[in-house]
Amino acid sequence: xxxxxxxxxxxxxxxxxxxxxxxxxxxxGASELRxxxxxxxxCQVPGAVKDSSDGRTACDHYHLWxxxxxxxxELGFDAYRFSVCxxxxxxxxxxxxxxxxxxxxxILNELQRRGIKAYVTLYHWELPQFLxxxxxxxxxxxxxxxxxxxxxxxxxxxxxxxxxxxxNEPYCSAxxxxxxxxxxxxxxxxxxxxxxxxxxxxxxGLAMQVLTDICPDIPSGLVLNFTxxxxxxxxxxxxxxxxxxxxxxxxxxxxxxxxxxxxPLLESLPAAERPVIEPGDMAxxxxxxxxxGVNYYTRALVQACPGGHFEILPPADNVPVTAMNWxxxxxxxxxxxxxxxxxxDLPPLFITENGMAEDDVVQNGQVHxxxxxxxxxxxxxxxxxxxEHGVDVRGYFVWSLxxxxxWAEGYLKRFGIVHVDFDTQQRLPxxxxxxxxxxxxxxx
Length: 444
Ligand code: FCB
Prior knowledge:
By secondary structure, the protein is α/β, with parallel strands linked by helices. The chain is built from 15 helices and 11 strands. Bound molecules: beta-D-fucopyranose.
């Protein structure tokens, strides 16, 4: 028997939001009803996605959304974080796809009817291919195109949304997509990553202006992913290396958005790797946000390498890891929240993603995902501890509602609290969903 969730007082308050998250490309399918995006193209590249799969059907959420929303309600979540697929809204000729808008409006209406708060992300990595053809995030114009798209969405959705997120994890779009090429569009080159990142951050800032203009009362912000970095040893070299890793991967995104300045690392970058920053950009990027979304999965140990470089070490053999080979380290979330709190003047925080992939098996119609239950429990505990130390966290979203298309891993990695049989599209709540649900209901 899987143990029950312990009721955590700090997270039990009526004003603490408990939600569950998904993203459009990972679950929707129905790709024939929209423009192609960079992930459709990337999936066609041999070897790019481990199981050679794609997002054409995914969880068929486009057709099954009603049952999926009913499930969120039955499980007892307060909120649903999902994303809007840009190429489902804007066509290559610049016109608006009304059918695409209607799909999301129906979801918003249903959430409203059921009293579930809608947390809407505008960009979870599906750049329209027609924009990539013009240079994608290496082209400054893409940032302005994003603001135009944000205007269309915010105008259509009105007050049906509880909170907007401009971008999900610009680090992944920029570094994984344009520097090491393991995500779409698969570009490789040290000279690209930080340029793409600057245009993404600019897109965030321009969209913030649009959202403030159209829906000033709806909280808007940015979602960043953070790894907590620790030195592999207590040597000065490893400590320095750790700061460098943190500057590249965490502060490169948090600092411009929160302070209007890149980390000092900017000065030491070779000219070819520096972003082109135009006058006024940093003020746009650092527009005040109502909240910052924090996605956390794991920590990493950092080791110094010759020449002032660093290496991120794989987890040691004796530590618990997930099916992604990510170390399970709840204390990293607590440390991260305290670190952010100490280093920045923060708006309220939401944990917008946290969860794990496990090699789940269905046995007698059940999935006993014991490790996930523990993972969630301990990470929620870490959030509560950070709150007790004064960090202002307003909500926590589990990643993810459903097993889904896990990017370069295809359908091989299951992050859902609800199991999906990809042949039949049958949904089966795992023990983690059932335990969470018990707790959510007690809490109400
Ligand atoms: C995050 C992504 C999300 C999911 C999880 C496992 O980086 O935002 O889409 O893939 O990782």
